[in-house]
């Protein structure tokens, strides 16, 4: 019945679009979305502080994004102060789900900056294109060369960082002609433990990572192409100093096949359909830790099959985007504990009980230009979301807590948003409102004794959770002159049935040393406010000054602080560029975290400020282009930790780096 | 215009195709006529006229609660008796004395079948000098017969029996009956409670409560939620409760035996400083 309703609604939506009137006007290319474009490879180097920076460091530059850090590697992105359950992260539109119950493998860890061309960060419901979200979305778009005359491009990169002796090596090969393009990229990183300020070694912060990415397209006709793509990523011996366990191996295979069609002389400008598959294997272990009450193995697996079909169309004043998408994911995680007495049988449980998620969604966007200065944007999304516990063992386990629980649960997710944007001469502004819903994550609905070392509680999922519902308001005001560019942006989220873990005093924890057991429940509501200010001042053609300030606040219905809400954070930088030479100095810091959330394990984090510097030089050597950058991070060797460092573990101290890129 | 409509319809149908799938899990159970399904013979006892075959699920007997089925074959006709009246008497032969144990009556499993069933709760294991035997008495067409044989009762690897003197001066026996194959789930736990009347007579204790508190000593005495204390559904019967096991491994099920008036006859509640009760069962799976 629901499926029929869904189809009917889709049809209605389509006929509504087609019934729109034709008007002739041009659209203003204003984007509410924040797009960090790295652009082509030549630009990549000049735009980043380090040529071989990590994706995490790179994303962190956005005012919308912050990172929860559990180690030196694979940070968890927060969008609008919200963690990954409330956001949507995709690689080229593909849904991928981490296989780690402790969120040690966010999707962002499976792409390297060297093969990334752009990260589209959408705030709130504007990010609902590929599925349901509350906080927003990040779509990581990989590099792809466009068809042109035959050309080979080879690029070698290498780098070294003194603090953790990180050795970086990479190479990229691109081939293009008028019918074919091939982009291949490989990156290897190998880092030892890093040292916090005052030369304090942070044990278990080492990592090794290899990333291979290949994309190849074939032109099938003047306006048709087919593209295959593959990512293979393998991280080994990854330490998580803030957690009681490390990762022995995390391996991902991400593959897709895409068909693109750009009709000529038609209202449809672009039609892209992609089928994809990805599989992730993640193994946590604690065999290298000196003091563990009980040794554990915690492997996890996540497999996703999906497709999307996205059409953009222009009719008169309307710019349409329609995206139909589905995915089927299976998440399984186990825990095996080894008793001290070797004659005792192993203790085994399913922490993710082989849960399948089947999602079918439709997203529609209409950007309607009112005149040449302003436009309205509407988006709507509908999705059907079905979870099923495929393992009988897992279902039986959860039925210990929920006696009458059924294996399957269906949900229906809705999203709607509207925005008004205006830009004329030096002033631009916009505002919008939205409503969106999300289903609980596998952990929130079906997790079984998952230990959170930050709160020091075991967590039990709750399959009866209601959908989280968010009402959102946003606004921005910008001012742009020849030398000045100012922008202030704010977003407000009122999230009803906000999902958090609540201690259940009747339960006895499983993890030795845990304070207790939390069951996921819904708070009546929570509110999150983010205000950001960015400014850019061009002193001269050579010298640019940037300032960035973000203020966030998160409270629940009883005015209790939410966790991982940033205190006032700021960054300011001076960038000097003269022909082949560039120099940059960055000063960044956080104010004292006073609005911390003690019931979620937070304590007051002191303020900090650090200084980073780099120097870059580009030159040609014979026929090759050489770009080198060297610099110092945390020049003063400050010992510090930020609000988003898991269990207050410290950030790296002073580190010198050298990055080198040679292109042929 | 029409062509686009067609394409759009195509997409919608694609979505439909992806979203419509069904699962038909029809589990058909076929009844079996075989009485011995799931049973293994562990003993044959013979007298001049008959052979008595003893069966159990495991193909053995051991210390603790044993569900035993038997059938009696007439040696001359080679037919199994369907109209016998059967009783039994297990006896422990110790150096200084002989005693019995809790046991049930022997009843026919089905009216038309050949199997008879009952339980025997061997509260102690045999050793090199001390042994159990069973005397089986049966009457067919008003003629009485008897047969006796030694049975093998090795010690169980886990604790399944608690024999103790209660606070009220009565000697109680509390035995683990089920689940035979525990699972990570809410298990139906079955417990037997008897008291010793004299050395040869044991009777079912009625109306008490067996409080259960499962713990994992290897995991910091981790416990599980939603356990239900075992109580009797019918007078003279076994005690039924719910036992939640959150993972595989070694579990200690701490017990308290409680009288209908609420007084604890034996056993301690787990609290700070008290990690186990003086009466308990062990499970390992």
UniProtKB/TrEMBL annotation, chain A:
Q: Name one GO molecular function term.
A: siderophore uptake transmembrane transporter activity
Localization recorded for this chain is: Cell outer membrane
Which source organism does the UniProt entry give?
Flavobacterium caeni
How is this protein named in the record?
Iron complex outermembrane recepter protein
Going by the UniProt record, its keywords in alphabetical order are: Cell outer membrane, Membrane, Signal, TonB box, Transmembrane, Transmembrane beta strand, Transport
For membrane topology, the record states: Multi-pass membrane protein
Signal peptide annotation: 1-19
Gene3D superfamilies per record: TonB-dependent receptor, beta-barrel domain, TonB-dependent receptor, plug domain
Q: Which residues form the TonB-dependent receptor-like beta-barrel domain?
A: 139-624
Query: Could you tell me which InterPro entries the record lists for this protein?
Result: Beta-barrel_TonB (IPR000531), Beta-barrel_TonB_sf (IPR036942), Plug_dom_sf (IPR037066), TonB-dep_rcpt-like (IPR039426)
Return the GO cellular component terms, semicolon-separated.
cell outer membrane
GO biological process terms on file: siderophore transmembrane transport
Q: Name one Pfam family in it.
A: TonB_dep_Rec_b-barrel
From TrEMBL, chain B:
PROSITE patterns associated with the record: PROKAR_LIPOPROTEIN
> What span is annotated as the signal peptide, if there is one?
1-24
Q: Which domain of life is it from?
A: Bacteria
Q: Which UniProt keywords apply?
A: Signal
Question: How is this protein named in the record?
Answer: YtkA-like
């Amino acid at each position: 019945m629901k499926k029929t309703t869904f189809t009917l609604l889709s049809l209605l939506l389509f006929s509504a679009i087609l019934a729109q009137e034709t008007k002739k006007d041009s659209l203003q290319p204003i984007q509410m979305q924040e797009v960090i474009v790295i652009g082509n490879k030549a630009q990549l180097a000049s735009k980043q502080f380090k040529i071989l920076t990590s994706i995490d460091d790179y994303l962190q530059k956005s005012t919308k994004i912050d990172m929860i850090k559990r180690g030196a590697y694979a940070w968890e992105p927060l969008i609008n102060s919200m963690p990954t359950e409330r956001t949507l992260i995709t690689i080229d539109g593909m849904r991928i789900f981490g296989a780690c119950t402790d969120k040690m493998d966010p999707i962002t860890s499976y792409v390297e900056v060297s093969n990334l061309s752009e990260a589209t960060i959408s705030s709130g419901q504007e990010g609902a294109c590929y599925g349901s979200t509350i906080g927003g979305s990040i779509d990581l778009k990989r590099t792809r060369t466009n068809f042109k005359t035959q050309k080979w491009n080879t690029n070698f990169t290498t780098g070294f960082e003194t603090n953790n002796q990180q050795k970086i090596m990479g190479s990229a090969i691109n081939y293009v002609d008028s019918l074919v393009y091939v982009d291949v990229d490989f990156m290897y990183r190998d880092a030892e433990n890093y040292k916090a300020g005052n030369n304090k070694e942070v044990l278990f912060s080492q990592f090794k990572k290899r990333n291979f990415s290949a994309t190849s397209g074939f032109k099938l006709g003047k306006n048709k192409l087919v593209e295959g793509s593959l990512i293979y990523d393998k991280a080994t011996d990854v330490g998580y100093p803030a957690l009681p366990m490390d990762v022995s191996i995390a391996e991902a295979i991400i593959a897709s096949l895409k068909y693109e069609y750009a009709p000529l002389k038609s209202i449809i400008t672009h039609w892209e359909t992609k089928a994809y598959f990805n599989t992730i294997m993640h193994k946590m272990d604690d065999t290298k830790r000196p003091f563990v009450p009980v040794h554990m193995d915690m492997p996890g697996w996540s497999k996703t099959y999906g497709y999307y079909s996205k059409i953009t169309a222009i009719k008169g004043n309307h710019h349409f985007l329609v995206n139909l998408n589905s995915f089927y994911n299976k998440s399984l995680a186990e825990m095996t504990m080894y008793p001290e007495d070797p004659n005792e049988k192993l203790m085994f449980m399913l922490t993710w009980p082989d849960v399948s998620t089947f999602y079918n969604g439709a997203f529609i966007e209409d950007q309607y230009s009112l005149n040449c200065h302003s436009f309205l944007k509407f988006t709507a999304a509908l999705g059907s979301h079905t979870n099923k516990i495929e393992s009988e063992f897992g279902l039986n386990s959860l039925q210990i807590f929920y006696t009458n629980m059924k294996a399957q649960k269906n949900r229906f997710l809705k999203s709607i948003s509207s925005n008004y944007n205006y830009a004329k001469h030096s002033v631009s502004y916009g505002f919008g409102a939205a409503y969106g819903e999300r289903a609980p994550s596998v952990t929130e609905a079906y997790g079984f004794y998952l230990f959170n070392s930050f709160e020091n509680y075991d967590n039990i999922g709750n399959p009866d959770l209601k959908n989280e519902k968010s009402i959102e308001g946003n606004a921005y005001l910008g001012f742009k002159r020849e030398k000045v560019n100012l922008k202030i942006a704010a977003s407000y989220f009122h999230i009803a049935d906000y999902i958090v873990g609540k201690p259940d005093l009747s339960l006895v924890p499983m993890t030795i040393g845990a304070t207790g057991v939390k069951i996921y429940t819904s708070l009546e509501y929570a509110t999150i406010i983010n205000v950001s200010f960015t400014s850019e001042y061009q002193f001269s053609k050579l010298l640019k000054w940037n300032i960035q300030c973000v203020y966030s606040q998160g409270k629940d219905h009883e005015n209790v602080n939410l966790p991982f809400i940033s205190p006032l954070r700021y960054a300011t930088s001076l960038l000097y560029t003269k022909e082949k030479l560039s120099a940059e100095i960055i000063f960044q810091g956080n104010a004292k975290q006073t609005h911390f959330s003690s019931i979620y394990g937070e304590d007051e984090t002191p303020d900090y400020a650090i200084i980073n510097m780099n120097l870059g030089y580009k030159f040609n050597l014979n026929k090759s282009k050489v770009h080198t950058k060297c610099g110092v991070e945390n020049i003063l060797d400050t010992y510090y930790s930020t609000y988003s460092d898991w269990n207050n573990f410290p950030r790296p101290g002073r580190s010198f780096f050298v990055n080198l890129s040679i292109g042929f | 215009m029409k062509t686009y409509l067609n394409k759009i319809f195509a997409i919608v149908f694609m979505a439909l195709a992806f979203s419509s799938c069904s699962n038909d899990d029809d589990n058909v159970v076929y009844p079996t006529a075989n009485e011995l399904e799931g049973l293994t013979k562990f003993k044959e006892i013979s007298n001049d006229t008959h052979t008595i075959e003893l069966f159990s699920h495991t193909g053995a007997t051991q210390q603790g609660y044993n569900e035993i089925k038997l059938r009696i074959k007439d040696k001359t006709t080679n037919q199994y008796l369907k109209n016998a009246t059967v009783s039994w008497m297990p006896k422990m032969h110790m150096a200084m004395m002989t005693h019995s144990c809790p046991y049930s009556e022997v009843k026919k499993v089905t009216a038309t079948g050949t199997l008879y069933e009952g339980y025997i709760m061997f509260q102690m294991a045999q050793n090199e000098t001390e042994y159990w035997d069973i005397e089986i008495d049966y009457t067919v067409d008003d003629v009485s017969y008897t047969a006796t044989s030694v049975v093998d009762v090795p010690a169980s690897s886990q604790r399944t029996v608690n024999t103790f003197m209660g606070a009220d001066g009565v000697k109680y026996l509390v035995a683990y009956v089920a689940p035979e194959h525990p699972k990570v789930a809410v298990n139906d736990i079955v417990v037997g409670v008897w008291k010793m009347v004299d050395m040869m007579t044991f009777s079912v204790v009625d109306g008490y409560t067996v409080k259960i508190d499962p713990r994992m000593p290897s995991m910091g005495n981790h416990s599980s939620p939603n356990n239900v204390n075992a109580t009797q559904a019918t007078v003279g019967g076994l005690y039924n409760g719910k036992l939640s096991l959150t993972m595989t491994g070694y579990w200690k099920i701490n017990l308290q035996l409680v009288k209908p008036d609420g007084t604890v006859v034996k056993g301690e509640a787990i609290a700070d400083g008290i990690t186990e009760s003086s009466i308990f069962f062990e499970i390992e799976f």
